[in-house]
Write a structure and sequence with these properties.
The strands form 4 sheets. Strands 1, 2, 3, 4, 5, 6 and 13 form a 7-stranded mixed sheet that branches. With about 450 residues, the chain is α/β, with parallel strands linked by helices. Helices cover about 45% and strands about 15% of the residues. It has 2 domains: about 230 residues, D-Maltodextrin-Binding Protein, domain 2; about 200 residues, 3-Layer(aba) Sandwich (D-Maltodextrin-Binding Protein, domain 2).
């Protein structure tokens, strides 16, 4: 088992609170579902296979999962998959899984956010998947494969992509060209565009990056800007230091640009409300918005053909967006790995992927599912998001340290947005990252 004693000790501190979450959150998730919403009862003599998801409170996610469970259970008589859906606010689901792992009470099948796969595999929570080659070798998007040390531990059901939401009428009135994947806006061009929007007096803010959303949103949505400048959260050549990547010249240029967005009034800061984040662009308060495909349908309903979904700007190192979403995995303690893998294989087929893509407005994880959807067929207004993730997608650092990196980056980006000295803040983040690497003996890379 490739995990250090220190990593496990660092998790124990979270277990006292998180252990209680298992029972509390499970009770909440079950009580939130009426009997009619539960999958059909098990076939006589079938073996129970437990499944946890982080989908409580997200009907567009949990609805297809319930259907798949019902379909899988009806398709054979050996296994009966049982669902427990947890909420995912403020890392609650992750804390619950960590507590369950340390108390040896993990379910068989786990819902895992893609960037956490290396961490959970390294800590011994997961076992490699055992799927048919026909499934593994299907045309999945690259970020749908959750790997650690060349072994497959997770496989995705859908992908998301971020783009710049804009109104065509605004671009036309300001004489701004529509960017393309082949010719995105450059960093200098984007700054001129922000100046144009700000100086027009038409908007409360020129650009909404989404500061009301915290947690994983920061590394998912904002670290690609850093990467486009030429920096990164960690040096990916070794994963043994953040020196130079997070505090070098490119990273400082990113930090200065990032701080300017807020200090000079281009963007709403950390005091932004959730309501303003959700509705500010549609209401006309924001000129441009950094937003994901999951909001495309709502925005089209409000703005019709006037809304454009544009590629990311290129700040010098290519346009970048975050890649990698929720995946299915099998726990290391699962006593029915055959049944668990059979279910994961079942839900990884084109029809099931298509059902999720339409329900969640999520990019189909594999290309042969797209023609089976209503939202993602060729020519659909939102099909561009699949092009964006294929061309611009950058997975978050695939290291067991990632959960810690995410929180360190979130704090640094937040502090810089609120006026902290850029170089000092980034140096401090590097020191914290490097100390954590040393304390955990290199996280298995040595």
């Amino acid at each position: 088992m490739h995990h250090s004693r220190l990593l496990r000790q660092s998790m124990v501190a979270r277990v006292i609170v998180a252990a209680a979450c298992i029972g509390i959150l499970a009770a909440q998730s079950v009580s939130a579902q009426s009997p009619s919403e539960q999958p059909p009862s098990a076939q006589p003599g079938s073996i129970n296979v437990t499944l946890w998801t982080a989908s409580a409170g997200a009907p567009d996610v949990v609805a297809p999962i319930k259907k798949w469970i019902a379909d899988f259970n009806a398709s054979q008589s050996t296994y009966n998959v049982e669902l427990t859906a947890f909420p995912d606010a403020n890392y609650a689901y992750t804390d619950t899984v960590v507590a369950a792992a340390l108390s040896n009470s993990l379910p068989c099948i786990l819902d895992v956010d893609g960037p956490n796969i290396p961490s959970w595999a390294y800590a011994g929570y997961l076992q490699p998947l055992a799927l048919p080659e026909s499934t593994v070798n299907a045309d999945f998007l690259p970020a749908m494969y959750g790997k650690w040390q060349d072994k497959l531990y997770g496989i995705g059901r859908g992908e998301d992509a971020i783009g710049l939401f804009a109104r065509k009428s605004d671009l036309d009135s300001f004489g701004i060209r529509v960017p393309t994947l082949d010719k995105p806006w450059t960093g200098d061009e984007f700054q001129q565009i922000l100046d144009t929007y700000k100086n027009s007096g038409k908007f409360k803010f020129a650009f909404d990056p989404g500061m009301a959303w915290t947690g994983e949103w920061y590394p998912y949505a904002f670290s690609p800007f850093l990467q486009s400048f030429g920096g990164d959260i960690i040096d990916r050549s070794t994963f043994q230091t953040a020196e130079g990547a997070l505090n070098g010249d490119a990273a400082v240029k990113w930090g200065n640009w990032w701080q300017k967005l807020f200090s000079e009034g281009y963007s709403p800061g950390t005091s932004q409300t959730a309501g303003d984040r959700d509705n500010g662009f549609i209401d006309g308060d924001y000129g441009l918005q950094w937003m994901g495909d999951w909001a495309a349908a709502k925005t089209m309903d409000a703005l019709g053909d006037d809304v454009l979904f544009l590629p990311a700007p290129d700040f010098g190192n290519g346009p970048k967006i975050g890649a990698g979403s929720w995946q299915w995995a099998v726990s290391s303690t699962c006593d029915q790995p055959e049944g668990a893998n059979a279910f994961v294989d079942f839900v990884s087929q084109p029809q099931q992927i298509a059902e999720f893509a339409d329900s969640r407005t999520s990019i189909p994880a594999r290309s042969d599912a797209a023609p089976l959807t209503t939202k993602w067929k060729e020519g659909s207004p939102i099909a561009v998001f699949r092009d964006y993730t294929a061309a611009e997608g950058e997975i978050r650092p695939p290291t067991p340290q990632y959960p810690k990196l995410a929180k360190i980056f979130e704090k640094a980006a937040s502090d810089i947005s609120n006026g902290a000295d850029v170089q000092t803040t980034l140096d401090g983040a590097v020191d914290e990252i490097d100390a954590d690497i040393t304390a955990n003996n290199g996280f298995g890379f040595k």
